[in-house]
Amino acid sequence: MDRGPQASTSERMEGRPTRVGLPRPAKVVGMPNEKLVFAQSVEALFVRSLGPRIMREERRRLREAGLDLSEPLRPAYLLEQWRTFLRVAAVAVFPSNSTEAAHFALGEHFVQGYRQTAVGRASMSLISQMGPRGTIERISHNFRAGNNFNAARVDELKDRSATLWLKDVAADNPFFSAGFLTETLRGAGAQDIRVEPVAFEDCSATFRISWAQAARRPPSAPHAAVG
């Protein structure tokens, strides 16, 4: 799958630094059956990764949808709000891309932003040690960490390929998850990665994944003593 062109990072971030803090008096609905995306997911994508590239107008649109980047993040956001946030970001950051390519790039950026957090650094360090196959075997843990509703199932796993079912792609299309999977496998040392949605119904999707294992670096030779 081709990655869409990357937007310039030279734009400057507006507004005060965003912090994760207590919720404002208004409102994330706390019903037990509500699908919620946790603040760490919002922070990874919209603060850590995309923050400098979201300009004034898009910040206004995000604020109208429920995400005020000049204020502390709420503990969680409704899934429908998150989907709206993705739509705004797709157009704002990747205006020349197709909807699918823009969502794919957002999925990649999500992992890149997650890697900048303390929890993300530890998680990605573990992934790099497990390799692509081990990462696929534990992929359900990655999807459950950022929300209260998702689940993943590995239907087939071979040395260089897998079939993965995802309960909820948490977006308007499956390509955000495809980008997430691609960047995660890249962090696990995979190369020549292909993540293809082969079925998409309601909010669930099935992906066919293939990769080549990256060559391992030889151990560094000890430095000669300087005398």
UniProtKB/TrEMBL annotation:
InterPro entries attached to this UniProt entry: Mxa_paralog_2265 (IPR011751)
UniProt biased composition (Polar residues): 1-10
Region (Disordered): 1-26
Protein name: Myxococcales-restricted protein, TIGR02265 family
Species assigned in the record: Stigmatella aurantiaca (strain DW4/3-1)
